[in-house]
Amino acid sequence: MIDFQWSGFGLAVTDIAHFMTSAVHADALMDDDGESKLQHYYFEQLQRYLVKYGAYQSKQEALEKFPYETFLEQYDTAVLDLTRLVIAYTLDRFTEAVDK
Fold first, then answer.
1. Gap between the Cα atoms of 72 and 13, Å rounded
2. How crowded is the C-beta side of 10, counted as CA atoms within 13 Å?
3. Alpha carbons 13 and 15: distance in angstroms, whole number
4. What span, in angstroms and rounded, lies between the C-alpha atoms of 75 and 46?
5. Out of the domains of life, which is the source (predicted)?
6. Model's pTM, two decimal places?
7. For the chain, how far is it from start to end, CA to CA, in angstroms?
8. Could you give the CA distance from residue 13 to residue 42 in angstroms, rounded to a whole number?
9. Opening angle at CA 22, ends 16 and 34, nearest 5
């Protein structure tokens, strides 16, 4: 079990990557371009709330300063970081079996 009860500065897409990799069934991500559809949905919502809560003055400004390409780059980085974290926390389980 991984506990995500942490907050701090980081990538805007980290929570989305955590959710997509831990709570969405793999079939939903793989079938019918599901991962891409969810990414587009979350990007649209993020853009909406960046404007609503004053990070940007308009949707156009939000799109210019935080484009979809940046969102996808951050998503990939966040998934890799999560993978690193999971491997690091479980590494002892793999090395102990080899040593015995």
1. 8
2. 13
3. 6
4. 13
5. Eukaryota
6. 0.77
7. 25
8. 9
9. 65
- Both tokens of 61, joined, read 């400004």
DSSP state of 23: T
Residue 53 DSSP class: T
Q: Determine the residue type at 69.
A: E
In this prediction, residue 100 carries a pLDDT of: 54
Tokens at 20, concatenated:
């997509």
Question: How many Å apart are CA 75 and CA 20, to the nearest integer?
Answer: 10
Q: How far apart are CA 82 and CA 22, in angstroms?
A: 10
Q: Of 75, 85, 81, 60, give the one whose Cα is nearest residue 12.
A: 75
3-state secondary structure of 24: coil
Region of residue 33 (left: phi > 0; alpha: psi -120 to 50; beta: else): left
Q: Where are the alpha helices (DSSP H) in 1-100?
A: 14-22, 26-30, 34-52, 59-65, 68-99
Structural domain boundaries of the chain?
A: 14-99
